[in-house]
Design brief:
This protein is α+β, with helices and mostly antiparallel strands. The chain has three domains: about 220 residues, Rossmann fold; about 80 residues, Uridine Diphospho-n-acetylenolpyruvylglucosamine Reductase, domain 3 (2-Layer Sandwich); about 130 residues, no CATH class. The protein has 14 helices and 22 strands. The strands form five sheets. It has a six-stranded mixed beta sheet with strand order 3-2-1-4-6-5, sandwiched between helices. Strands 7-8-11-10-9 form a five-stranded antiparallel beta sheet. A five-stranded antiparallel beta sheet has the order 12-16-19-20-21, with no helix packed on it. The protein starts with a helix and ends with a strand. It is found in: Cytoplasm. It comes from Inconstantimicrobium porci. It catalyses: cytidine(34) in tRNA(Ile2) + L-lysine + ATP = lysidine(34) in tRNA(Ile2) + AMP + diphosphate + H(+).
Length: about 475
């Protein structure tokens, strides 16, 4: 096992002599196996090992026992340990994130803190071959392209390494048993309420029993082949983009000539251009890529709004991509979204909108038995009084009639009273109904559209920050 991991690590140049390696250490079989193997290789490579354990405070006493176990193992093997406790449920409530996204964000934030403090060379993550198979299947089910089904990279950003990606879960569990490591078991991994757990506990065993006993390794080989193909196509796309894309400040232009390229190269080039301007690499899907292609085929002067606050325009066949938030002095379209006659839309089924760094969902509900104060990023309004909805940033002279008051108050005064930093005030979404401000997100709600006993249709507005 150790020889196999060492050979795999050498294949991908994961580490070298005298490296400082930070181990993401949960206390489960995978991370403990990874830790033990690196300890066995430490003398040969003169590693300096560190470990990071984050207690999400989700599993009560069990999580505390995980923390105690990790501390004991690090003391035993002379590994410098960093521990952090984070109330994930609190973050979920306050920021409207899923527990999975909140947990991942906090973990990687913690890793980065230690990375900087200790001048770490590599951060070792304990993904294994089964994790790879589960990831590829999950992305395939969700409709991912070749980039997604390439799976988990053995090394990413010349920083994160996955030395046991070559080992399957059964081998890892046997290694832990043979070495009497007694890792902790997270019982939530045995629950089938999450998609990944369903794939792990139901789908993969079914395929293994009925179609292919070696399905995990088969899917891993598929991932490697897909990765090789995708790497080549992305290389071609980068070359093409370099020749046909002009990027300056918060906008860029794709030259019309690029649209004659093969779709495999064109689609990747467009995605890269969008990510360059948006300065993020999430939320752009194939439907957005095809929307850009169709826009280029249409009339000059037409525009479309994409996620991450990107406005794309056809300028005589060239495609202009503008970052609306980082260039607020730009076109008015960047700064607002308007929905006319909301009850005549599909709001009963739910409307989803991306605005600035937020995902906004709106839907009509009938049940008044809701906790109106449970979450400051979920608000309820009397939809019977609403015709048009506009989401925008603040403007000079903006006023709102706060809950419990009869006369309007200037937003400027409210921001001062709430001690909202000046540099944040222009980036707070404002919800306007029928030309009256209904909600200054996270700050103040209007009395005009409050739910009363006469309300029949309630508009629920939910805001989540995208990661």
């Amino acid at each position: 096992m150790i020889t196999k991991v060492e050979a795999f690590a050498k294949e991908y140049n994961m580490f070298k002599k005298n490296d400082k390696i930070l181990i993401a250490l949960s206390g489960g079989p995978d991370s403990i196996c990874l830790m033990h193997i690196l300890v066995k290789l430490r003398e040969k490579y003169n590693f300096k090992l560190y470990a990071a354990h984050i207690n999400h405070m989700l599993r009560g006493e069990e999580a505390d026992k995980d923390e105690e176990y990790v501390e004991k193992m690090c003391n035993k093997y002379d590994i410098k340990l960093y521990i952090k406790r984070v109330d994930i449920n609190k973050i979920v409530i306050e920021e409207g994130l899923s527990s999975e996204l909140a947990g991942r964000r906090e973990r990687y934030k913690f890793f980065d803190e230690i990375f900087e403090k200790e001048n770490i060379d590599r951060i070792a993550i304990a993904h294994n071959a089964n994790d790879q198979a589960e990831t590829i299947l999950m992305r395939l089910i969700r409709g991912s392209g070749t980039h997604g089904i390439s799976g988990i990279k053995p090394i990413r950003d010349n920083k994160f390494i996955r030395p046991i990606l070559c080992l399957n879960r059964a081998d890892i569990e046997k290694y832990c048993e043979d070495n009497e490591l007694n890792p902790r078991i997270d019982k939530t991994n045995l629950e089938t309420i999450y998609s990944r757990n369903k794939i792990r506990l139901k789908l993969l065993p079914y395929i293994k029993e009925n179609f292919n006993e070696d399905i995990v390794n088969t899917i891993n080989r598929f991932g490697v082949i897909s990765s090789i193909d995708n790497d080549y196509m992305e290389s071609e796309a980068r070359t093409t983009l370099k020749e046909n894309f002009e990027n300056k400040c918060n906008e860029g232009v794709l030259k019309k000539e690029i649209f004659s390229k093969h779709e495999a190269v064109l689609s990747r080039s467009i995605k890269m251009a969008l990510e360059i301007v948006a300065k993020v690499n999430r939320n752009f899907e194939m439907k957005h890529i095809y929307a850009v292609i169709n826009l280029q085929k249409g009339e000059t002067g037409k525009s479309i709004q994409l996620p991450n606050n990107i406005l794309v325009s056809n300028v005589y066949g060239d495609i202009k991509i503008a970052n609306c938030v980082n260039n607020l002095a730009g076109e008015t379209k960047c700064k607002e979204i308007e929905i006319k006659n909301i009850l005549n839309t599909n709001v009963n089924e739910g409307i989803n909108i991306d605005f600035y760094k937020y995902s906004i969902s709106m839907r009509v509900i009938k049940d008044k038995n809701v906790n109106f104060k449970a979450n400051h990023l979920i608000k309820y309004f009397d939809c019977d009084k609403i015709n048009d909805v506009k989401i925008r940033f603040r403007q000079n002279g903006d006023r709102i009639v706060p809950i419990g008051m009869k006369s309007p108050k200037k937003l400027k005064d409210i921001f001062i009273d709430k001690k909202v930093p000046k540099d944040e005030r222009d980036l707070i979404p404002i919800f306007e109904f029928n030309d009256d401000i209904a909600w200054v997100m996270g700050i103040k709600t209007s009395d005009i559209f409050k739910v009363t006993r006469d309300t029949k249709n309630i508009l629920q507005v939910k805001v989540q920050e995208r990661i």
